[in-house]
Amino acid sequence: MLQDPGTLSGHLVALEPLAMEHEAGLAEAARDGEMWRLWVTRIPHPNGMGAEIERRLDLRRQGSMIPFAARRLDTGTLIGMTTYMNIDAETPRVEIGSTWNAASAQGTGTNAESKLLLLRHAFEVWGCPAVEFRTDFHNQQSRAAIARLGAKQDGILRGHIRGDGYLRDTVVFSITEAEWPGVRRGLEFRLEKHGAPRAG
Asked: Tell me: the pLDDT tens digits for 40-87?
């Protein structure tokens, strides 16, 4: 089992260990842009937020997921969720996924910083040789965002079943340990435009 990192904090966003206390704030974040209506990704309806939090907490108890709630630091509001998932503690290797953000948070740098925090911990603390990302073939926005990180496409899993039973073609990306320094510099450069200082 990889040790839970606790809260990961940056300049723009803090990733807090997911808890039931986050339910109301995350339900409000999902209402921002009616995120649950997007068919190419799985975002909980506000009325089902408690059940989704419990599902993720159950996966944490099983050792296959470490879930977070994302909090925007300038306003203190919750803006979404993200996780380490499909955890292979022996290798170690993880996927960063089950991520969604409120519409008003998009373009603010909070998602880029979330990825920086998660990737930095995976590579520099856990020593992962690679970190994976997956998305629906039809989710062009997500595919473009993952590619902007510097992730390389590994392939497409045709007729792949998502966790909720939806059958899709899943596009698989990854970043390797050797690629991480360049990816880190790229993310830090993007975040400087949002006033975030470059990490030492």
From this structure: 566 788 899 999 999 999 999 999 999 999 999 999 999 999 999 999
The pLDDT, as a whole number, for residue 131 is 98
H, E, C per residue of the chain: CCCCCCCEECCCEEEEECCHHHHHHHHHHHHCCCHHHCCCCCCCCHHHHHHHHHHHHHHHHHCCEEEEEEEECCCCCEEEEEEEEEEECCCCEEEEEEEEECHHHCCCCHHHHHHHHHHHHHHHCCCCCEEEEEEECCCHHHHHHHHHHCCEEEEEEEEEECCCCCEEEEEEEEEECCCHHHHHHHHHHHHHCCCCCCCC
Q: Output the CA torsion sign for 40, 147, 2, 23.
A: negative
Q: What is the mean pLDDT of residues 94-111?
A: 92
pLDDT digits (tens, 9 = 90+) for 9-48: 999 999 999 999 999 999 999 998 666 556 456 678 889 9
Cα(23)–Cα(15) distance, integer angstroms: 15
Angle value at C-alpha 8, between 7 and 11, nearest 5 degrees: 125
Q: What domains are there in the chain, each with its CATH number? A: 8-192 (3.40.630.30)
d(CA 62, CA 59): 5
CA distance 181 to 186: 9
